[in-house]
Amino acid sequence: MTTVRQRRVGKGTEAAEDQPSEETNVKPDGKIPSDHTGGKLWNILSVTVGGIVAISLGLLTSVYVATLHENDLWFSNIKEVEREISFRTECGLYYSYYKQMIQAASIQQGIVNCKQYLEPVYFYIYTLFGLQAVYVIALYVTSWLLSGTWLSGLLAACWYITNRVDTTRVEFTIPLRENWALPFFAVQIAAITYLLRTHLQPVQERLTLMAVFIATFLFSLTWQFNQFMMLIQALALFILDCLDMLPTAKVTWLYIIQISGLLLVCVLQFFNSMILGSLLISFNASVLIARTIQKNLKTGGLLNRLGKLILHVLLVLCLTLLINKFIKKILNLESDEHIFKFLKAKFGFGATRDFDANLYLCEEAFGLLPLNTFSRLSDTLLFYVYVFVLFLMAVAAVIVAFRNLSGSNQVKLMEKMEECTITLKPDAAYSLVHTVLFGCLALSTMRMKYLWTSHMCVFASFGLCSTEVWKLILKCVHLYTSQRAQVLKYSIPIITLLYISYKFWPGIMDELSELREFYDPDTVELMNWIKSNTPNTAVFAGSMQLLAGVKLCTGRTLTNHPHYEDKNLRERTKQIYQIYAKRSPEDVHGILRSFGTDYVILEDSICYERRHSRGCRLRDLLDVANGHIMDGLGENAPDLKPALYPRFCEEIKKNLPSYTTHFTRVFQNKTFHVYKLAKHK
C-alpha cells in the first residue's frame, strides 16, 4: 500500500560476419569506402560506438528502474521493517535467505561482508537492478547480431524501456526469481544467435558454446520454471532441424547443453527430483535416440520427406512420454503434478477440484493475456512493426521450408521466383520460431508475457533494420536498388526513434519526478509485536504470502511458505488453510498442532475476500475441495453438501467457549488477528 507524498519535482544460406558490425564495407549513407583498410577502420569504429551505446543504455536502464523504485517507496527514508515488508509475498521469502546468509558469522567474515560499504538491502537490490543492465545489453546485442547494425540494438533497447509496463516488473517485485533468471536467458539467446551464424572459426564456436552453457546453467539455477521455458526452446530447435533450417550438429550441442545444465543444477539443489522428472530431459533424450533409430531423414522428395518427418515426430513424442513416465515411476516423483492438473483444466480438458490447480487458475497472472496489452504496445509502434516483420518472416520461412523439403527434383519450381529470391539465415529462423512459440505461451498465460515482449522488441527492431527484409520488399515491388535498401534500413528506424523520443520522453520525465511513500502501518505493527512479544522459537501458521514476511522480518519458524514446487509443502499448506474453511475448532486446533504451531495469524482480507469473484475466493476453493456448498448466491455442484460447522475465521472472533478452549487472542488490529494455541496434553 502506498500514499502519495505531497511534493513534486518540477535461413541459413547467406554468410554473415563473425562479429556484430555494420554490413561489410558499407557506410550508413550507402557509400563504399575507397579501400579495404578504410572498410576495416569503419567496422572497428562502428563496433566501438555500438558497444559504448549498448553499455550506456544498459546502465541508464539500471539507474532508471532503481530511481522508480526509490521514488515509489521512498526506500532510503523508511525503516528496515518497512523495507522488508515492501518485498511482498514470495519476494520476502527469497530475500530472507539472503538476510539469513549475511547475518551468519561465517559469512560476515567472508566475501559477502559489504556492510562497511553499503547496506545489505541496497547491495541486494542494486545487484538486481544491475542485472537489468545485463538484460538490456543482451537484447541490444541480439538485435545487432541479427540485423548487422547497432542501430537495431538501440531501437530494441528504447522499445524495451518505453514498454516497461509490459517488458519487466523488476522495480516492484525485486527479489522474484524471474528477475534473476531472465537476464541470463537473454544472454543465452544472444549467444545462440551468434552460434548459428555461418563460417564461425572452431575457436569461436567452442567459446560460444561455453557461453551458451554458462548462461543456460545460471538461468536454470535461478528460476523454478526454467525447464518449461527451455522445453519451448528445444521445441523451436526441433522444428527448425526437422525443416533443415538449422545445422544439425549445432542443434545437437544445444540439446546436450540443456540437459547438462539441468543435471548440474539438480546436483547443486541437493538432487532436486522435480528436475529429473522434467519433460525437457525426456524430450531432448528422445530426440537424440530417435535420430540414431531413423537414418536419412533429410533425403528424398517432398512426399518421402514428409512421411519420414511425421514418423519422426510421432517417435519422439512416444519416446518422450515413455521416458518421462519411466523416470517418474522409478523415482516416485509427484512434485509437478499440480502444474499438469492446472494445464489440463486451463485448456478445457475437464474441470478439476484440485485445490492447488485452482489456486493457479483463479490468479489473474495465470489467465489469458489481456487485450489492452496490445494497445499499450501499439502506442510505441512496437506491435505494428512486430506484426509486419512477423508476417514477412513467416512467409519467407514457409517458402524456405518447402524448398528444403522438396529436394533437388523440385528446385526448378522455386527458381521461377528468382526475381524475388527468398533466403532465411539460421539465426533469423531461430528468432522467428522462438518468438512465435513464446508468443503462444504469453497469450495463454499472462505471467509469461515478459519472455515474449522483450524478444518482441528484438525481433521488431531486427526486421526494421534488416537489409534482407527491405531487399525482399523492394524486389517484390520491382523497386530494388542497393541504395534504396540502405536508405530504408537506416531512415525508417531513425524516424521511429525520433517518434518514440518525442512522444514518450516527457512521460518518462514526469514518471521520474513523481514521489510516493511506502505506507502499511498494520503490517508494521504486526511484525513489531511478533518480535517483541513472542519467543524466537515460536512457530507461526497463516497464509503463504504473509508468512514469507514473518520469516523475513522476525526470523520466526513457519509451518508453510510460498515455495510451491514441493508436494508435501503443498499438502501442508492446504491443511493450514483450513483456518479459512468451515471446520470445527477441534479439527483446526488438531491440524495446527500436528505441525507444531504456537501462533496462527488470521487475515480479514482473506476471510472476507472480495478481490476474486465467487468460486475463486480462497474460502470457495476450500469449500469445494472439502465437499461443502460455497457462500453467497450462485450455483453449486449437485454433490456439494452444507457444512456441519460455520467458517472458522469468522466464528473464532465471537470468543465462544468452544473456541477459547483452544485459542486465545493475543494481538489484533484492523487487518490481522493473532491467536495463541493451547497445548493440550
TrEMBL record:
<feature type="transmembrane region" description="Helical">
    <location>
        <begin position="229"/>
        <end position="246"/>
    </location>
</feature>
<feature type="compositionally biased region" description="Basic residues">
    <location>
        <begin position="1"/>
        <end position="10"/>
    </location>
</feature>
<feature type="transmembrane region" description="Helical">
    <location>
        <begin position="277"/>
        <end position="294"/>
    </location>
</feature>
<comment type="similarity">
    <text>Belongs to the dpy-19 family.</text>
</comment>
<protein>
    <submittedName>
        <fullName>Probable C-mannosyltransferase DPY19L3 isoform X2</fullName>
    </submittedName>
</protein>
<keyword id="KW-0812">Transmembrane</keyword>
<keyword id="KW-0808">Transferase</keyword>
<feature type="transmembrane region" description="Helical">
    <location>
        <begin position="144"/>
        <end position="162"/>
    </location>
</feature>
<feature type="transmembrane region" description="Helical">
    <location>
        <begin position="381"/>
        <end position="406"/>
    </location>
</feature>
<keyword id="KW-0472">Membrane</keyword>
<feature type="transmembrane region" description="Helical">
    <location>
        <begin position="182"/>
        <end position="200"/>
    </location>
</feature>
<dbReference type="Pfam" id="PF10034">
    <property type="entry name" value="Dpy19"/>
</dbReference>
<dbReference type="GO" id="GO:0005637">
    <property type="term" value="C:nuclear inner membrane"/>
</dbReference>
<feature type="transmembrane region" description="Helical">
    <location>
        <begin position="41"/>
        <end position="66"/>
    </location>
</feature>
<feature type="transmembrane region" description="Helical">
    <location>
        <begin position="207"/>
        <end position="223"/>
    </location>
</feature>
<keyword id="KW-1133">Transmembrane helix</keyword>
<dbReference type="InterPro" id="IPR018732">
    <property type="entry name" value="Dpy-19/Dpy-19-like"/>
</dbReference>
<feature type="region of interest" description="Disordered">
    <location>
        <begin position="1"/>
        <end position="34"/>
    </location>
</feature>
<feature type="transmembrane region" description="Helical">
    <location>
        <begin position="486"/>
        <end position="505"/>
    </location>
</feature>
<feature type="compositionally biased region" description="Basic and acidic residues">
    <location>
        <begin position="24"/>
        <end position="34"/>
    </location>
</feature>
<feature type="transmembrane region" description="Helical">
    <location>
        <begin position="427"/>
        <end position="446"/>
    </location>
</feature>
<feature type="transmembrane region" description="Helical">
    <location>
        <begin position="306"/>
        <end position="327"/>
    </location>
</feature>
<dbReference type="GO" id="GO:0000030">
    <property type="term" value="F:mannosyltransferase activity"/>
</dbReference>
<feature type="transmembrane region" description="Helical">
    <location>
        <begin position="452"/>
        <end position="474"/>
    </location>
</feature>
<keyword id="KW-0328">Glycosyltransferase</keyword>
